[in-house]
Amino acid sequence: MTVNRYALGLVFCCFYVVSYFTNKYVLSVLKFTYPTLFQGAVVLSWLPGSLLFVGNIYAGSRALSRLPIPMFFTLHNASEVVTHMTSRLTHKEHASWTKLLSVSLLLASAVSLPLVDPQFDPGGYFWAVIHCLCVGAYRVFQKLPKYSHLSDLEQQCINYIFSVLLLAVAAHPTGDLFGVFEFPFLQSYRFHSGCCASALLGFFLLLTAVKLKSGLPLEHCASWLFLAKILAACLSPFVFDIVVSKSALCCLLVNFAGEGLLVYSEYNAASR
Question: Is the CB of residue 46 less than 8 Å from the CB of residue 207?
Fold first, then answer.
């Protein structure tokens, strides 16, 4: 049973790394700066959550197209600060000192990174902040008691269907999302292959994540997600061109230390 859990976690990590690498390739190398239409309710009460989901994938796509993967993760992890602050204000939740320290490290590294990033891109960081806010707000929305009857798979199905409908409607005013006639044959082939690969990998990552959550406690799932992020961040310089100064590297290390401490605090809270 333990072997199966480790195997499932490793599969999740592989899909996570390859999915982010493929999305980064499609968004930055192939210059596909619009959100893919393969991301996809029927439940009207979940509409605000679906809107936050669309904001998450749209802003995330725009940010990932312009920022290196480690920098993107640093801003993405800061969404925990939004979740924590909102939960404290709305639910009066009390946090342990380890969680407070982890949230402080995540916030400090995210705020400091734009100041020391040698590849600073104002547009990329702007969309990363929007992505961070949407992700944090979406987590809070998921925890509302009125939606506890919806499983993770049901929530994601609603989100994906809604995003397909909304982004398809938005495709006309924002331009031709397929761009068949704007690329040479080889580039067009690579473009569509990359989009299809991104869609399939995203779908399999979703299924693996749902399976992982159903078979493991949430704190263990957080550990696997943390490991997947570390793998993606460490391997990305071998695939994409990244310039990192010593100060920026310190921000990245502080950010991952903060996330590791957050996982540790959640594990301790669950074991009490």
Answer: no
Which DSSP category does 146 fall into? G
Q: Scan for tokens 């509409």, then name that residue.
A: 47
Q: Which of 203, 206, 177 is nearest to 37 (CA)?
A: 177
| Contacts made by residues 249-255, CB under 8 angstroms, sequence distance 24+ | 251/74, 251/109, 251/112, 251/113, 251/116, 252/70, 252/71, 252/74, 252/109, 252/113, 254/105, 254/108, 254/109, 255/73, 255/74, 255/77, 255/105, 255/106, 255/109, 255/110, 255/113
Express each pLDDT in 20-69 by its tens digit. Answer: 887 787 677 666 554 443 444 646 777 888 888 888 888 888 898 889 99
Rounded to whole angstroms, the Cα distance separating 174 from 128 reads 20
Token code pair at residue 159: 């989100």
pLDDT (mean) for 189-199? 62
- Residue 134 CA to residue 52 CA, distance in Å, equals 5
For residues 174 and 55, is the Cβ–Cβ distance under 8 A?
Answer: no
